[in-house]
Amino acid sequence: MRPSKEAMKRVMDTMLGDKFLKRKLESTGVFMEIIEEMSKDIEGFQEIREEYDRYLKDIRTTNRTKWHTENKMAVVGRDDTKHDYMLRWDPETCLTKASPLNEGKSITDNNHMFNILNQEEMDVAYENEPLWGEPDVWKDINMFISYVMQNIEDATGDHYSYILRIMRDRFRMEEEVHREHDLPKAPNKEKNLVKLKEEIRKKAGELGFGVVGFTKIDRRFLGDGNDSVAPYQNIVVLGMEMDTEQIEEMPAPGAKTGELWVMRTYADAGEGAHALADFIRSKGWGAHPRMSLDGEVKFSHHAVNAGVANFGTSANVLTREYGPRVRFCAVILEADVEPDGPKDFNVEEFCSRCRMCQKACPVGAIPKEAVRMRGAMRRRLNDKKCFSSMVGMNSECGWCIKVCPLHKMGFERAMEAIPPYYSYNLD
């Protein structure tokens, strides 16, 4: 549910009525008060919290033994457990529990672009040490206030540009995690899933998404092993193009355009994801949006499985349509539509000869070669170097995107540079 108009109006009145707000925002307390005010009027918030508290109390007391028995059966009572489930740790009960079915696992395991060396090593690594949900820096409120908002103001003249849109959509997304099965949808489901898939693809295009792919959720690629962010097994991966002119302004965003190159895309993509989820619900099916500024669902891994992207040298995945000039979001979908298979665009063959992003990175955050990690060979961006470089330069970086030939020249021209002998799979 969206914050009520009254709550939004109170927040806006506070912002517009206090000329010293910018100074006050340097205090974490004031910023958190704004968030708290916006959260108060979310419909059903208190009821959900009370219901969750009762659930936990029930586990801790009379129902604990029964819950433990059912949980044990769910984990060890099936022959296909190793293939279809992951063990999750529940800190509230100090017990393990089974994840929902991991239907996307087989897609990843059979996708040669993940370069899996040891399947068991990979499975154990992700089960025991899930990927982080958010980078360390994004958990720091001072980083957001002193760096992100300041950069937005420098580029656009208003440090609230895009932020209210992004915050609104994030609050709604997080609230819908707890209300997914209660959200209103059409009483009759569209039974023709082929038709539904094409309607979703068409609607996504109308909302500004130039990249659309369907696949299954691989629960190894959920931040912190949090299965609640993916209440269904299917995912629609959505890619929105970033503005070329704004990228070319790097490393001085807003010099000509008056825009902070990526924030408008984040805001537009977030709103688009919500709109597409509403559209899917109008067809009678459950849907849950995940906006671009979301670390819980790893979009790049699912984009590769959905056949709309390939892994590149940098942390960015590359698409045929826009190269690295794209920001992803997604909608988790109840309808069991046919997934799109992975597609090898020969990007790795090109990147192995290019390495422009690695050479241009001002802090050496992009490794030259892949290393063995979690049972696979991969390149792992040093995100601490990457984020610290942006703070140190007091600007968005983006050199890895700006110098990429797939951004500069386009996919087809870039692929012409590969010797014909190595130019496979370019249909």
Automatic annotation (TrEMBL):
InterPro entries: 4Fe4S_Fe-S-bd, 4Fe4S_Fe_S_CS. SUPFAM superfamilies: 4Fe-4S ferredoxins. Keywords: Iron, Iron-sulfur, Metal-binding. Residues 341-371 form the 4Fe-4S ferredoxin-type domain. It comes from the Bacteria. Gene3D superfamilies: 3.30.70.20. GO terms for molecular function: iron-sulfur cluster binding; metal ion binding. PANTHER family: IRON-SULFUR CLUSTER-BINDING PROTEIN (PTHR42827:SF1), IRON-SULFUR CLUSTER-BINDING PROTEIN-RELATED (PTHR42827). This is 4Fe-4S ferredoxin-type domain-containing protein. It comes from Propionigenium maris DSM 9537. The lineage of its organism: Bacteria, Fusobacteriati, Fusobacteriota, Fusobacteriia, Fusobacteriales.
